[in-house]
Amino acid sequence: MKLFRRRPSLPAESRPPLASGERVVAWCLSGDSTEDVVVATNHGIWLPSAVARLGWHEIHKVAWSGRELRIIPAVVSSEREGYTVLVDGPAVTFLLLEPGEVPDQVRTRVTKSVGYTTHHTLPGGAVRVVGRRVSGQDGLSWAVRYDAGTPVEDDEVITATDELVGAARETVAPPL
After folding, report:
1. Does the pLDDT of residue 3 top 60, yes or no?
2. CA atoms within 13 A on the CB side of 169
3. What is the pLDDT of residue 9?
4. Which has the closest alpha carbon to 121: 132, 113, 129?
5. Where are the beta strands (DSSP E) in 20-139?
6. Is residue 131's pLDDT more than 60?
7. How many Cβ atoms sit within 10 Å of the Cβ of residue 154?
């Protein structure tokens, strides 16, 4: 009887170009080929056919059905002073027949990347203010995501958002 079952190592031909200090924490096949592999690292997730890693802080939503991993990445809509405005990118779904630790690692690491989150009502809509931890970077990276229908270019909305982000930053700022 084996007490410890080790998962086979990631095949060399499937290994993405990891950054310095980046290490594989889980992986699984997403198809029949060793090219169709999902690799979770301490910095983010490498998806099949991806040329770059998707950082944990760049993922808006993740869902695991028991067979399919669905990821909705964040896409930068605009840059404002001290924060970015994000929108949902197109969802990507991968069938994982032997997922191993991948779904658990994805959920844990996306959740851990969130250092601050609040939802606020604005004139004509609402906004979520989020401070995310970015691997290799001190402090939080600030972003907002407006609810559908919010007039994001309205001066009153922009001013209110600026104030909300500023207040959030002060809340988590280390004491002097």
Report:
1. no
2. 15
3. 83
4. 129
5. 24-29, 37-41, 44-46, 54-55, 59-64, 68-80, 83-88, 92-95, 114-122, 125-133
6. yes
7. 15
